[in-house]
Design a protein that fits this description.
The protein is 0% helix and 52% strand. The protein has 119 residues and is an all-beta fold. The strands form 2 sheets. Strands 2, 4, 5, 6, 9, 10 and 11 form a 7-stranded mixed β-sheet that branches. A 4-stranded antiparallel β-sheet has the order 1-3-8-7, with no helix packed on it. Strand 5 and strand 6 form a beta hairpin. It starts with a strand and ends with a strand. The model has no long low-confidence stretch (mean pLDDT 94).
């Protein structure tokens, strides 16, 4: 069974950067796309960014455009989220998720990694 494991979160000052990683382990990994989501305290989980696994086409939520970059390394079954110019509003638990096909939604989720931005 495939598992997703996020890493790279932490405490950072406003204006700083982090790179989150999400590694897929288990049986042969083949998906349509991978995505990053985040959930801030008291708020619903929201979409951050996604990338198609084969073509590398990326999509971003408006609040993160220009600051976040999603990428993937197919050989390592890993997806990354580079986060720059962090601000306190970015504080959240960040989750990665896998979308098996283009017709369905995200079916497999990681456990999340905490990002805390101090002002």
């Amino acid at each position: 069974q495939v598992q997703l494991v996020e890493s790279g979160g932490g405490l950072v000052q406003a204006g700083g950067s982090l790179r989150l990683s999400c590694a897929a382990s288990g049986r042969t990994f083949s998906v349509y796309a991978m995505g990053w989501f985040r959930q801030a305290p008291g708020k619903e989980r929201e979409f951050v960014a996604s990338i198609t696994w084969s073509g590398g086409s990326a999509t971003y939520a408006d609040p993160v455009k220009g600051r976040f970059t999603i990428s993937r390394d197919n050989a390592k079954n890993t997806v990354y989220l580079q986060i720059n110019s962090l601000n306190p509003e970015d504080t959240a638990v960040y989750y990665c998720a896998a979308r098996p096909t283009s017709l369905g939604g995200y079916r497999l989720w990681g456990q999340g990694t905490q990002v805390t931005v101090s002002s």
